[in-house]
Write the C-alpha cells for this entry.
Amino acid sequence: MSLYKTLKLFLTGIIIIVLMAICDRTNAQSSVVIAVRTDMLRWEPDVDLGISFNNDNAIYFTFQPVDYGLGIRGDYTLDNLGMYSSISYSNWGLYKQYDLQNHIKFTTGVRIPLRDYNGCSFDFTAGLNYHYLQSAVLNNELVKPTIFNPLSFELGILVRLRR
C-alpha cells in the first residue's frame, strides 16, 4: 500500500474517532454517520463523514476521491420525508489532468429508512446532481462526453453508528 493511501486511511480513522468523541460529549441521541454515494452516470463516489444529533438531522464533511472535491452535506426532514442536500467544489485530481476546472456539484435527494441492524440504523439514498464544470478543452478524446452533462443521479447508503 502506498504512503498516500495509508495516510488517507489514517486521516479517515482520526476523523471518525473525533466524531465519536464529539458524540460522547453531546446528547444521548447523537451518533457518527457515514454515507457513501455513487454518481450513476459518471461513476464518481462521494464519501460523507458526519455527526447526527438525532435521527432526522445531521451535518457532514464530504470528500470526492475522483477529483479530491470537498464539501458539506446536511440531512433534514420535511413532513416526515427524509431529505439531504450537499454542495462540493474541486479543482484537483483526475479532472485537473484532463484540463477540467472548477467542478461544483449541488445535490438534493431523499433518504429511505431501512431496518436497524446490530444497533446501527441504515438509510437508502437517491439524489439528483447538478454539475458546473469549466473546461479548457471542449473536444478532449480522453474525456467521456457524459462528463459535460450538467445533470446526473446518484444512489447510496447511509449508516448511523450508535454508541
User: Anything to note?
Assistant: The two ends are 31 Å apart (CA to CA). The mean pLDDT is 80.
